[in-house]
Design a protein that fits this description.
about 100 residues; mainly alpha
């Protein structure tokens, strides 16, 4: 790789750790929690159909319908908890302020 020697010389011995290939589990969990919250939002507050929600989430999160469907199914208990606790738009906005949570 071009520039590798220079890069390696900048690092002190023992500082370079091997890079783990693949996805970051923590980031995936956070994304899935956000996805489930958006699913709840579109279904509970917006009254959208399941198919419409999937299409909206595809556009928002750049995931396939199959992947979104799998994540929602794997986190069905989280959706149930959101519904049971009657989570408000305000609470969703506090957790994910970068997203629009209007009624």
């Amino acid at each position: 790789m071009r520039g590798k020697k220079l890069f390696n010389e900048l690092l002190q011995p023992g500082m370079a750790e091997p890079v783990r290939k693949g996805r970051n589990d923590t980031l995936q969990e956070d994304r899935n929690k956000c996805l489930v919250a958006r699913y709840y939002y579109y279904g509970h507050f917006k009254g959208k159909s399941y198919e419409d929600i999937l299409l909206l989430l595809v556009r928002e999160l750049f995931l396939s319908i199959a992947r979104i469907n799998k994540i929602v199914q794997e986190n069905a208990e989280v959706v149930a908890r959101l519904k049971q606790n009657n989570v408000s738009l305000y609470m969703l906005g506090i957790k994910w302020p970068h997203l629009c949570w209007r009624k």
